[in-house]
Amino acid sequence: MLFNEIVSLSAEHLLLVAIAVMAATAIAAPSAVFLTHHARSRRWTLAVVNIIQTIPSLALFGFILPLPFIGGVGKRTAILALILYALLPILRNTVVGITGVDATVRESAVAMGMTDGQILRAVELPLALPTILAGVRIATVTTIGTATIAAAIGGGGLGTFVFRGIAMADTKTILAGAVPAALMAITADEVLEWVERRFSY
Amino acid sequence: MAALVEFRNVTYQAGGREILRGIDLSIEEHETVVLLGRSGSGKTTLLKMVNRLLEPSSGEVLFSGQRISEQDRIQLRRRIGYVIQDGGLFPHVTVARNIGLVPELEGWAEDRIRKRVTELLDAVGLDPRVYAARYPRQLSGGEKQRVGIARALAADPPLLLLDEPFAALDPVTRFGMQRHFAHLSQTLGKTALFVTHDVREALMLGTRIALLKEGRLEVVAKAHEFSRAQSQEAQAFLATLAEGPHAVQ
Prior knowledge:
Order of helices and strands of chain B: EEEHEEHEHHHHEHEHEEHH
Number of strands of chain A: 0
Strand content of chain B: 25-35%
Helix content of chain B: 25-40%
Shape of chain B: globular
Radius of gyration of chain A: 19 Å
Number of helices of chain A: 8
Oligomer: heterodimer
Distance between the termini of chain A: 48 Å
Largest sheet of chain A: none
Radius of gyration of chain B: 18 Å
Strand content of chain A: under 5%
Number of helices of chain B: 10
Strand order of the largest sheet of chain B: 6-7-8-3-9-10
Structural class of chain B: alpha/beta
Number of strands of chain B: 10
């Protein structure tokens, strides 16, 4: 039945997105903290991540596909590509959030005798949190969209409907994938914006 | 009287420019030394060398008779209160947590911190029941500055460094804060190094005034003797006092 398939593919889609965004956060946030202290590596890292972002998603899936060990048709390849896309907004927002902390506030913290670790935990991260969460929100919403294309390389999810619909020239089937994906994106945006507001000061 | 802070032939260079040259100055316990000077005279630079926000290019700074270059920065800074122009308060935590931070870092018990916060808010003239739970954005400029001073005093440091703390306040609030500070530093017996470009403030708060001009110490004098200083720069500053609607005519 179509409805059951929509539910199960939506769940699969959501799982793909959740894994990709969580992994990207786990990679990007600590890297960004490191990069705030290293201006030179910050420039080239952001440049590389920016370039990844400009590769069309279908092409990126195509690039990863033939790679040994990490490539191949299936979810693993799809998730890897989604992680690469989600890195940029999280990395950039974390860097901006931390470097954007008011210089007088940081100087006060230093002058009060806080260690670098204490400044990071008690001042910089809490002040950067709303910006970091905005990055996670942007990453989540775009990943929900990009994940539909992951079906092209066997990633599953709502893209399955889209590609099946295109193959059958059947608009109804395309919409069965596209509409839930759009709803998912809007809901994620709303929910994460609410979380962001809760952590604003 | 023992010197709490001592500058010995301190110079500071940045970007090929000499900001400070051959500074010799000592600050005795329980006195307030005001560093007076125009913008760019090097007064803030000199202040920041005491808590090692900046390191001298040559020369030595001593705190309690010990070279600060040989002391642990973190430990040194926790024994020195620091107050800046807009307070530098942490916007994401309450007034109470702002004040209690250094004691917290020093591992004080929660009860003792709470008592200390109450005591300090009282001392700077803010009702703890009203202000403890507020956030910095809910405070006026003068209130922020009071909290900034309370925070600097939190762990009962022997020395306070103040960098134009009242410069951004309106004149009425500023005058109130100056009087309050004079009273506070006297009753608490603190030693203070106070940066300002306002000669009236310098005369009001300083035990001694150290006048800086282009990175050199031009005059060091007791506040009540400052007006007799044979220095063009000192006279230029004193001339600003006479300025007013009457002087123009």
